[in-house]
Amino acid sequence: MDEVGRGALAGPVSVGVVAIDADCRSAPQGVKDSKLLTPAARERLVPRIRRWCLGHGVGHAWPEEIDAIGIMAALRLAGERALTQLEGITPHLVLLDGNHDWLTDPRRVGLLGLLEEAPPPPPVRTMVKADLRCSSVAAASVLAKVSRDTLMVQAAGEERHTPYRWEQNKGYAAAEHLDALRELGPSDWHRRSWRLTGQAHLDGEAHIDEAHSDETHSNEEGSAG
Predict the structure, then answer these.
(1) Full-model pTM
(2) Contact 42, 146 (CB under 8 A)
(3) Where does the signal sequence lie (predicted)?
(4) Rounded to whole angstroms, how far apart are CA atoms 152 and 116?
(5) 97 carries a ligand binding annotation
(6) pLDDT tens digits, residue range 18-29?
């Protein structure tokens, strides 16, 4: 598994999952961490990755959920949603990029009752730079990135969102995005619990989300990787 959108100011945090086993052939040529590929190259890889793996999925946790439960729990929620898309597949191991296991819920229950019927996730192993060392993690990164980017571009096409230029910055803190926040304040797609430029005049003193204290944690991936 791998995640994208964790550090963005707007839009969902998204988690991709790709399931493989020892019988899977080599990954499609060109699969690598999604951040190292052009948008066009990522999009071309999506159908090839889907044909290659045993199963795949992308789960999202939305801004209102991030605000309600924090970014780390939202990552877990998106990961659980991705795992439910592996129909008929029970992974024996999930490989996550980095050194922090954000998928395993210490309470072993569905978050806020949202996924109470979901089975507990499989064992998790973390690996630093797994997105560069493991093809399944890199493939999951590509699926998550393409899916989230598509959502952000679609949202940017709505008139109320066009000033933020998400088709260019995908919700991250680029100059044009910050300028629009200063002028207009946050939209319905912004993470309002985060310290957002231009939010104070709407909500009083802006709050800072737990994500900013946890930014040292890396992305994650699995064998469902």
Answers:
(1) 0.82
(2) yes
(3) none
(4) 29
(5) yes
(6) 999 989 988 998
